[in-house]
Amino acid sequence: MTTLWRGVMPAITTPFHEDLSIDYDFFAKHCAWLIENGCSGIVALGSLGEGATLSFDEKRDLLNTAVQAIGRRAPVVAGVSALSTHEAVAIARMAQEAGCRGLMVLPPYVYIGDWREMKAHVSAILEATPLSAMLYNNPVAYTTDFLPHQVAELLAGHANLHAIKESSADVRRVAALRSVAGERLQILCGVDDLIVEAVAMGASGWIAGLANAFPRESVALFQEGSWPLYDWFLPLLRMDTVPKFVQLIKLVQQEVGMGNERVRAPRMALVGEERAAALATIKNALSSGRS
After folding, report:
1. Which CATH superfamily is domain 7-222 in?
2. Helix (H) or strand (E) holding 207
3. pTM exceeds 0.90, yes or no
4. pLDDT digits (tens, 9 = 90+) for 130-172
C-alpha cells in the first residue's frame, strides 16, 4: 500500500499578477512554505487552484514549478479535470512527465453521464499512467456521485487507484467505503469543516483549503483533533464549503501575508458587505493569537 495519501495536503491556490498572468515565483515560494510548515504534499490544479481557467501550458508550467520547488521532500499531486476524456488523459500523461507522484481524478466538467460513462472516463485516466491515483468524489460541486459499490468496481480493475477524496459532506461515507474496500483504499477528507469527524471515522488524510494560509494549524488539527483548536478554526474552515470558497481562501491568504485575492473571471474578488463580513471573521481569528 502506498503511503502517498496521508497527512495534510493543501489544494494549493494559483497566484496571479495584476494582469492575471500566473505568478510562478510566488507559487514556488508558497509550495516550499507549505512543506516547511508540516504539510505532507501539494495538490495542484484543483477547483481551489482555478484549474478550469488555466490553459494546458499553464498547467504544465505550474506542475513543473511545484516539483522543482519541493523536490523529493514531498509529493506533488496533479488534479486531472477536463471537458473531454481525451484532454484528461493528456493532462495525466503531462503530469507524469513533469515529475508528479500522484493524480487526483475528477469527473468531466459540464457533462454529467451515467455510471457506464463515468467509469469509462475514470478508467481511461487511470490507465494512462502508472501513477498512484486518488478519485475525487464531490457530488455537491460536480453532481456526479461515486457511490461505494462503484468505487469498489474501479478498485477491482485498477491497481493504481489507492485513495479517494471524499467530499460528499456525509461522514457516514467513510465507514461505507471502508466496508467495501477495507485497507485497499485510503480515504481523505475533502471538506474542511468535517476534518475532525472524518479522522475519527478513519480518514488517513486531508485535502485542505485553509492550509494555504494556516498550514501549521491545519497539521496540528489533523494530528491532535483538539476541540479548542477546532473551535477557533471552524469559522475559517467553513469558508471552504461555500460557492465563493476560492475568493474567500485567497482573501485569507492576503490577510496573513501569504498571497493575494486576485482571481480569474468569471470569479471576481469580494466586495461590499460580503467582503467586510469575511474580513471581520479573519481578523477575529488573527486577533486571538492562535496563529
Report:
1. Aldolase class I (3.20.20.70)
2. strand 205-208
3. yes
4. 999 999 999 888 889 999 999 999 999 999 999 999 998 888 8
Residue tagged active-site, from 24, 59, 136, 142: 136
Q: List the alpha helices (DSSP H) in 10-84.
A: 24-36, 56-70
Question: Residue ranges of the domains in the chain?
Answer: 7-222
For residue 176 the three cell numbers come to 461505507
**Dihedral sign for Cα atoms in the order 261, 207, 165, 89:** positive
pLDDT digits (tens, 9 = 90+) for 188-210: 999 999 999 999 988 999 999 99
Q: Is residue 24 among the annotated active site residues?
A: no
Place of cell 478513519: 202
One-letter amino acid of 65 = T
| 119 contacts: CB under 8 Å, gap ≥ 6 | 150, 153, 154
Decide if 136 is catalytic.
yes
